[in-house]
Amino acid sequence: xxxxxxxxxxxxxxxxxxxxEDGKPIIDLSSHKYVKIWQGPQHPGVTGNxxxxxxxxxxxxxxxxxxxGYLHRGFEKLMERRKFIQCFPTxxxxxxxxxxxxxxxxxxxxxxxxxxxxxxxxxxxRMLVLEMSRLQVLLRGVPGQAGTFxxxxxxxxxxxxxxxxxDRFEELTGGRVYHMYILxxxxxxxxxxxxxxxxxxxxKLADEFVKNINDLxxxxxxxxxxxKGLGYIPKDYxxxxxxxxxxxxxxxxxxxxxxxxxxxxxxxxxxxPYTTTExxxxxxxxxxxxxxxxxxxxxxxxxxKMPEKGEIKAPTPNVMxxxxxxxxxxxxxxxxxxxxxxxxxxxxxxxxxxxxxxxPSYTHANALLEKLLINANIAxxxxxxxxxxxxxxxxxx
Amino acid sequence: xxxKDILTPFTAWKRVAKEPVTVRDxxxxxxxxxxxxxxxxxxxxxxxxxxxxxxxxxxEAIDLVPFKDPVSGDSGLRPRVDYGxxxxxxxxxDVCTTNSLSLSNEYKWIATDPExxxxxPGIEEKAWDKxxxxxxxxEGNYEFYNLERVSMEHLHPEERNDSFxxxxxxxxxxxxxxxxxxxxxxxxxxxxxxxHMGIPEYIKAIRNDDMEEGMRILYETNPLxxxxxxxxxxxxxxxxxxxxxxxxxxxxxxxRYIADQIPEDKYKEILNTNNLEVNDKKVAIIGAGPSGLSAxxxxxxxxxxxxxxxxxxxxxxxxxYGIPEYRxxxxxxxxxxxxxxxxGVEIKYNTRIxxxxxxxxxxxxxxxxxxxxxxxxxxxxxxEGSDNQHVYYSTDMLRKITSGEEIEVADSIVVIGGGNVAMxxxxxxxxxxxxxxxxxxxxxxxxxxEENMPADREEVVESRExxxxxxxxxxxxxxxxxxxxxxxxxxVKCNSLFDETGRFNPQCEMDVKNYYPGHMxxxxxxxxxxxxxxxxxxxxxxxxxxxxxxxxxxxxxxxxKWFFMGGDIIQGPDVIHGIANGHKxxxxxxxxxxxxxxxxx
Amino acid sequence: MQQIIQDIExxxxxxxxxxxxxxxxxxxxxxLQAISLVTYLRDYQGYASLTLLTAxxxxxxxxxxxxxxxxxxxxxxxxxVRTMIDRENATMESTHHLWENIQTYQRELKEMFGIxxxxxPRIDEDFILEGWDNIPPYRRDFDTKKYSxxxxxxxxxxxxxxxxxxxxxxxxxxx
Lengths: 397, 601, 175
Hints:
The complex is a heterotrimer.
Chain A lengths: L2 H5 L27 E5 L11 E7 L2 E8 L7 H5 L4 H8 L8 H15 L5 H28 L5 H21 L8 E2 L2 E2 L7 H24 L2 H7 L9 H6 L2 H5 L7 H4 L20 H25 L21 E9 L2 E9 L5 E7 L2 H13 L7 H7 L4 H5 L1
Antiparallel strand pairs in A: 1-2, 2-3, 4-5, 6-7, 7-8
Helix pairs in contact in A: 3-4, 5-6, 5-12, 6-7, 7-12
Chain B lengths: L2 H5 L32 E3 L9 H5 L5 E5 L10 E6 L8 H5 L5 E3 L14 E2 L37 H4 L12 H8 L7 H5 L6 H9 L3 H11 L3 H7 L3 H5 L11 H11 L5 H4 L11 E5 L3 H12 L3 E5 L8 H4 L8 H13 L3 E3 L10 H7 L2 E4 L5 E2 L12 E3 H10 L9 E4 L3 H18 L4 E5 L10 H9 L3 E4 L1 E9 L2 E14 L5 E14 L2 E4 L3 E2 L7 H4 L23 E3 L9 H20 L7
Parallel strand pairs in B: 6-7, 6-9, 7-8, 9-20, 11-18, 12-13, 12-18, 13-14
Antiparallel strand pairs in B: 1-4, 2-3, 3-5, 10-19, 15-16, 16-17
Chain C lengths: L1 H10 L2 E8 L2 E6 L1 H14 L4 E10 L4 E10 L4 E10 L15 H11 L31 H8 L11 H9 L4
Parallel strand pairs in C: 2-5
Antiparallel strand pairs in C: 1-2, 3-4, 4-5
């Protein structure tokens, strides 16, 4: 083998990869023009456990494949042999970082299919928990974007406040990470004494954080240079690739279930999700930052409007043999990443026939990410991925 | 891009002087929140080992392990948690029927041996056992099953107080399914039921709306479901696990619901008894009461030729002649009995053993004999004036009402007794008074205080609804007689019935007196055994226990090998014990006739 | 919503319909009409967004149910197109030309239910399960509990008692 040839650097990459007759790039690894590397499943730039199989030409990605399956627990199948009430501790694990929408969706599916009306107080409490959950995610998610460009400081600030929010979760629900609070029929407790006051103190810190992160990230020349123009999602991708939530709103398309399909008591709250049109990593980051601000505001509105006391759970059939007539439904809510839905089919027995969870990561991390990474720089992989807020446990469930 | 973008990030430096926010563990203890779902606690004295926690655990983290010997209403088992599987969802706490299970707010537990993380809360002592804080079932209307009974519709007092039509209406399908839904299928009740009926199983059949399956389950252990579904003493309901937090299930009414749904002509088909085998062995049954009918039914199923000897003109024993029609209509008795007779059981009415045929003769004619002759002898108070002709025994009066004989109904009546029979005669007489005088004037008095009255609570309440006056806690002293007619009953205050050792020893305050006027007195203080059909020389071969009861072995076999006895004369008195005895005796007779090594062979 | 359903009914043979909410209904069509209905909804009725594609195993009837859930962002309604396909040699026409993201769903269905979508890109590549050697696990006849008992070893020393049978064994063993 000619040593010289191996180290020969061809600066002109415009001619390859060549496009074959079928429109696909011809990638011949033995040509030494390409190198294949795996980003993940253990990699600090990958959220959770998933892997990207990247084919590089120099530091430019020419082909990308997403590999999931490192976290498959078969929950959808496991629920098929569990009674409806038993599904509720299972389903929280569908997405680890943001468990409450899972609880909410399962409860709503079961309630809708068996025709149960949830008490007013429970609905407000559900909404509070869902927003606290979003806050908790965004406190890490917003600065996490800067983290992918090696600015980890904001992430640490956010983690502290997130921990305080988890303290509030612990008070209200009995658990810090897996809250198991929203169960079919209602919720599992009223607000403890003094809860609102303590949460308000945390929200003040969050307010300050919102300001600080603005200074740190969005008025930061490094972040701007790295994030602007990166990972552009054209508007016509929204439906073709399945783009949801903040990512769609950054492309100027209004996608927020809270606004478009108000559930719980969202119709009684005053909010307007932020949209912009740049549709790059920076824009998505800004949208999420606005989401964070809005969530803090929503929590305050909920606390002001919610009833102090009241029924927390509707009477349900005996949970030991709760049977639901044959039927199917799809319910959805807005998670921090976008439309989060659950499809449930029942067959008249005391277990679901089929449960299917559809989270935005399913399309974001597969079809969309694979597309966006083409021609991106290897160093920007993590940045693009985090801007889509992928969550592997929700992809493979 | 501007110079601002270069400078503003440096504002982060202002935080350099801030104090760190991390908690210094372990120097600062950080207890879990008040509701934290930490390690399990169990109040083992409150826990009844019903296993509902095990059933709801989606991770199969809970096992039930023996803690002490089971007693009625407590399986003696306690939950053991495997922390290799537990996910601390606390469903076990929320579903717990006794509220004994909870989670503490402790979350730190260090051990080197993984086996230690499998433990029985409450029994293996842990540091957090005394921790008050932690997850408990949320307060308020937060229940995983309905604690309230589906109410049973009754005839209103005005509708029922002058007639003997059945007063309990029975469940509709919706009501029955709703009530059956409350069951958690723990099965604690089965042990308490004398007949050990498959209660959770037949309740499940109601939920599935599968009456035929329900019927088959009923007949496995009880051939008189219509009767038991109405007048059973429902000991099962006293131990129902749901009863610890709310109303126990209406097990009795559910049983009645199943039996009510099946028409008589479908029984044989459903129970698959159209073509029963017949063998060459013959068994005689004395008395067509619950135990006799039960024994006859199961013996017939086993193929024996069964003949029942009944002293009255109709079958049913105390169920027919002791229980008033408004509680147990005769057509329902007939429905159960007709089915048993339709299996090929022969019955000879108006035949009294000892008079029409001797017991010894039966022994010769048949391979085995079962006697379930019941308690038909009224027991008297023996007080002054009780030998007056207007002083009656309740058993006699109830029998006469059933057979349609004319009985005396005075304008004012006093009943002595606090049991169900006393309530039966009170309410029967109240109806007759209503028919005759258009008003009720009847006083019922018992030795027992209100809360200790042996009668079912609803019996007392309904007696009052029908116009009777119930005065518990008074001991009868004498009956005042004038011109051969009773004038009233003198009583003194009675405070307790039993002494510390549990012996019957009434304590009365003799100076606290009362007087209940009445021109007719009915004694209803219990019934006695009538075994006059057993000759003196025969009696020498069988053993007697205390209070004149015959002693039998566990299969109700007496000292005479071919002679079995059961029912009220041995255990009870109530219908369900009779049924259970009859069933067990049938098994005993079968084994006696088939097995050479049966205990007394 | 009713208008659209009426319009669809005039063009396609709807064998079953179920209106779940004002903004959600399910329509059942024959396998042969399913793709054209989905295409029609996407191109002419504004149901441009695919919410999900999944399958339900009706093993008793020998069918897989495929559900294409389509979302119309402007009317904010959803239509689920259901179609039954034979469980034996389960195959369905691929719709990867309609949405770029549907190939992921089809890959998952191939792997988890064994439903083939010939022509769908990368349809035979492993998606979640690598080296799986059993029947497709989301089929109803795949018993997760049995599989786990055969594949993993249970922790020794665990035993439990049923209250009712335990009480029987202690209190009335001979009855």
